[in-house]
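Trying the structure run again after the queue cleared.
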Amino acid sequence: MAFKTDIEIAREAKKRPIQEIGEKLGISSDHLLPYGHDKAKVSQEFINSVQDRKNGKLILVTAINPTPAGEGKTTTTVGLGDGLNAIGKKAAVCIREASLGPNFGMKGGAAGGGYAQVVPMEEMNLHFTGDFHAITSAHNLLSAMIDNHIYWGNELEIDERRVTWRRVLDMNDRALRDTVTSLGGVSNGFPRQTGFDITVASEVMAILCLARDLADLTERLGRMIVAYRRDRSPIYARDIKADGAMTVLLKDAMQPNIVQTLENNPAFVHGGPFANIAHGCNSVIATTTALKLADYVVTEAGFGADLGAEKFMNIKCRKAGLAPDCVVLVATVRAMKMNGGVAKADLGQENVDAVKEGCANLGRHIGNLKSFGVPVVVAINHFVTDTDAEVQAVKDYVKTQGSEAILSRHWELGSEGSAELATRVAEIADSGVSQFAPLYKDELSLFEKIETVAKRIYRADEVLADAKIRNQLKEWEEAGYGNLPVCMAKTQYSFTTDPNRRGAPTGHSVPVREVRLSAGAGFVVVICGEIMTMPGLPRTPAAESIRINDAGVVEGLF
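Done. Tokens:
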């Protein structure tokens, strides 16, 4: 049986004008700033007008550690949102925008799949409403102003060896990880070693996703640390006088985007920090606005629960005063088999024993999520090759972990396939049983916070950090940054820092390679193992298969 590709399904969507989608949430056309017929931004004026309303229920969708078999976290997020609407609930979806780097690399897009997608799929996975370009421009404006300040006399006495602000690009380009700028003589400035990160790892991205409004955005941009003097005192973006112009570039990007699912239900798509190197959640302004407009808001956190969900709870919820009412943990029979040692080529064959062996990874995530005081439901994202015995093996295992697993066929059937999951999730969200609390208190030292995540979430024995890193953390504490949460940058493929160690390993260490202070965003980035803040393209990038066909339409996006 041949299945249509995601892009073919998306192209056949019967989209409604974006004004009709806005009306479902009570947003009048006066407060929608349309980008074409099928996407729009919501005005800040409207957002301000609904702040006195009661919040709806917040449902977080997360997943096991990703495998090449695929988990379908965004697909499940969209399918659950459609399912809730189909059973008569007023629900909205909140997801992140897609980065061009992974789209043209290996991961693909971020709009869901099958019959659980957000559309317009092509625009969402390409330039969309230009938010990422605005973030890239604002970030690099600051870079240019720093080097320009040094060139014109360096009044702030910046130590050129201690400029910490790197440039960014929304593309996977390993050649730019380490660069030297200002070569070519006196007129080009003073040569120095620097490099590029991917835009989604930029602190500007993190700030846009955590800021409440434009005033908060400007204040946060201004307090970003960009360099140090020779006496180690910090230089802030406001010292360079860049915060005002950066806000101007980000003015429109700050407003949440609204689009629709294949079933014409509202979806907010806004912001996109990476989950393995940043905090991996859509914007606070989109989530909090959705909570004022819908009775149920389904949002996702990037990659596995050890990364995305941990940061959603410890960073986003802490900063925005949010608390999830229910967590949906996505797993697939295929991924269980891969965790159980089955090769990708053999996943189509029934292997109940491998499913049982691979469930340890799922169990670890269930336990971790419960440690936040939240109820957990496992969504088994159905693949056509799954057998009844394999599905039952997952259900039986989850029951032993004090949770429940529900088979969901949204990829194949849309809301009809997710109705059972939606019904149960709504019951749990309405029950009020969630007693959410972050994993650590603000008062712990920065190193103790790192240890807490490493030991309680990754189940590591120890954190390895040399004296230079420990001293840096102490300096930041003395400077008043000790109360910040930590943002762990780590491989998404394993609980360890070794991407090849699947399952639920114990007896490992977490080596910390570098720490970066994001004073504007309000967290400390902790880079563990070999993780890169500028990814590279794979041997065969997806870009090789993306083209415009003879009919003038895009092919190859996924």
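The domain at 6-129+253-431 is CATH 3.40.50.300 (Rossmann fold). Worth checking whether this holds up in the mutant runs.
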